[in-house]
Write a structure and sequence with these properties.
The protein has 147 residues and is an alpha/beta fold. It has a single domain, classed as Alpha-Beta Barrel (TIM Barrel). Helix content is 30%, strand content 19%.
Length: 147
C-alpha cells in the first residue's frame, strides 16, 4: 500500500530523487510528523510494475539519480519494496530507505524480507523518531538519535 508517490524531489535524500511514501506503520512514534500514514487500510494499492514505470519515466524526464522509500514504515512492506528496489538498481538508480527500526534490530530479526530490502538499500536512515530529541539541524532526520 502506498500513501504517495512523487516523481521528483530534492529534499528526501541526496540529489534528484523520486520518493515513495508507503502506507502503514507498526512503530507509530509519538509525535510523528505523518501519523496519517500509520493505518495500512487508508492507502492505495499500486502494482510494483506500475510504480517502476513511473520511476523510469522520472529518470527519463527529470534525470533522477535515486529513489527514496519512507512512510509509514518501509520495512513493514519489505518484500515488495525489495523487489522494486532491485528493479530500480538495474536501471542504475540508488535506493535510500528511512526506517523507525534500528539497523541492529533489522539484522537480528532474521526476517528474510527485511534482509532483502536492507541489501538493496544504498543509504539507510534508522531509528525511531523521539519527540524529546527533536533535531532539525541535520538533513533527513527528525531526532538526534536517528542515524
Amino acid at each position: 500500500m502506498i500513501h504517495h508517490f512523487l516523481p521528483l524531489t530534492m529534499v528526501e535524500g541526496p540529489g534528484k530523487r523520486s520518493y515513495l511514501w508507503v502506507q502503514g506503520c507498526s512503530i507509530r512514534c509519538q509525535g510523528c510528523a505523518v501519523p496519517w500514514t500509520w493505518d495500512q487500510n487508508k492507502g492505495k494499492k499500486k502494482e510494483i510494475q506500475a510504480l517502476f514505470a513511473e520511476i523510469e519515466k522520472s529518470k527519463r524526464e527529470h534525470g533522477i539519480e535515486g529513489v527514496t522509500f519512507l512512510g509509514g514504515e518501509p520495512f513493514d512492506q519489505a518484500r515488495p519494496l525489495a523487489k522494486l528496489a532491485a528493479m530500480v538498481k538495474e536501471i542504475g538508480l540508488s535506493v535510500m530507505t528511512f526506517t523507525g527500526y534500528l539497523y541492529e534490530d533489522i539484522i537480528s530479526s532474521s526476517n528474510p524480507h527485511h534482509m532483502e530490502l536492507l541489501q538493496m538499500t544504498d543509504l539507510l536512515v534508522d531509528g525511531p523518531f523521539i519527540k524529546e530529541k527533536l533535531d532539525v539541524s541535520r538533513p533527513w532526520v527528525g531526532s538526534s538519535n536517528q542515524r
